[in-house]
Amino acid sequence: MKIALCVKQVPDTSDIKWTENNTMQRDGVESIINPYDVYALEQALKLKKELNAEITVFTMGPLQAADMLRDTIAVGADKGILISDKKFAGADTYATGKTISAAIKKELPDFDLILCGQFAIDGDTAQTGPCIASLLDIPQLTYVREINDCNDNILTATRVLDDGIETVKVQLPALLCILKSDFEPQRALINGIIKAQNAEIKTVSLDNLGLNPEDAGIKGSPTYVSKAFRPEVKHGGEKFFCLENREGAEILYGKIKEIGVLNG
Amino acid sequence: MGNGILLYAEVTRQSYIHTVFFELANKACELSAKLNNAPVMAVLFTKPGMMEDYKEGFTNSGIDKVFVFEDEKFSKYSTEIYTKLITELVKEIEPDIFLIGATNQGRDLAPRVSSTLKTGLTADCIELDINEKGMLAATRPTFGGQLMATILCKTKPQMATVRPKVFKPAFDINYKNTEFIYRPAENLTDRVELVDFVQGLNDTLNELDSAEIIVAGGKGMKGEEGFKILKELADALGGTVGATRGAVDMGYAPHTIQIGQTGKTVTPKLYIACAISGAIQHTVGITGSEHIFCINNDPNAPIFDVSDTGIVGDVFEVVPKLIEMLKTP
Fold first, then answer.
1. What is the total count of domains within chain B?
2. Residue A15 has pLDDT above 70, yes or no
3. Does the pTM of the predicted model rise above 0.90?
């Protein structure tokens, strides 16, 4: 079984700083692997253990994203493909999906399964996964918490939705978007780290993929940002130091009544 | 040529039209007025025998035309089949704008449709407008809610998914002589099969989305016992319980009720933060709340900076007293 795992390097959104003109300070913000992609990696490692699956990790990003690929190899992934080219810059979800699907088609044409995280914490669009599936014309399962079973090219998975839990079967090849699940994250073992250090990370460019410059990056993106701004902070109100806890409860009770959220 | 605004009328598993559709309808009528009264249309998939129940909803919410796909198969949602039929319809009627609710189903379907149509899609919008050039200006939160981005689309249809509960629904306010157009649905194959569905096990997620009042706890609730007190307060208020990642990691609460960067983003009328310090990873998920109250024994906790009303005190004292007051008629 061959798995293509798509991961994204994202800024740690808990660590964002702002300039005086309310623009985001991008320098010096730590980059991390998107937390949801870690859950996708976990599902891939489970399949590796059970079915001897081979995991090729794809990421699109700057050259320093190679370090993140090495981190995935250190915990058990087999290969890393870095999709990197200045011409990919400014890509929206469609252009990103197009580039990543071209890379998978070229580097792992006989894949059985593509795994992605459900969301990336920076953009939070949840669109790139379905976009890749659509462009490769394979079925997709979104909101997957767990892969239950996989044999004879049929995969069974659990989807967690707002109204309940589905068990679904899908024909492979397919793409799955993985949600958060309960697990203990894998730790890199010393021989994993050594393997990661020595692993060759293949870098592929626009030309390698045979893509047209008009189809990639900002040029290949149907959408563009016309304006970005910080939302107004509307809170930051009164602070009551209450010597008696009863007093605190009374203040809250009064405020709850005041804003009129209680029925009846 | 302006060919109007198309809306996806999501039918829920319980066979009613999702309220987000009526919210979209209201907004679409407003956008239509800025587009020389371009028609507002809907596309709907349903099992047979339901249309009589649905019709009034469309005629009362300003919809000019509804494209109906009716088949036994449509008693359950299918990504592939719906995508195929919708993309064929869109290629034929060429709408300028196509809006879909940002529900589980909508966020599964929309990117599949937009990629097939090779057009742009803006995810999970909280504001829509028409700019001076007549383009759809879709605004959405990004970077965990810390930045808002207004996004335009160069291609047609300009697509967006829209977060439920941000626009008011258009019930009974905009009457139209709606035309219902039945479309054929043939040769439908699907590579995904639904084996089983268990309803409501995951109710808490659903409740956080729709709750008007959320009582949330952090690590300072000290354990599951602490969360029982919060549940009691939530019950007394007619609300539901949420938790921080810290509390979930400690095993005090299930991760299905986790709020914040790696959990849910919530927009209740009232959010009561109990023993929550207010790390940015948590607060990014709550700042869309109408009112935020907090109780914390540390007066320097950052949660006070995002709260309208903050009580410096012991949750284990304040909350039970508050419950008592709420229960006293």
1. 2
2. no
3. no
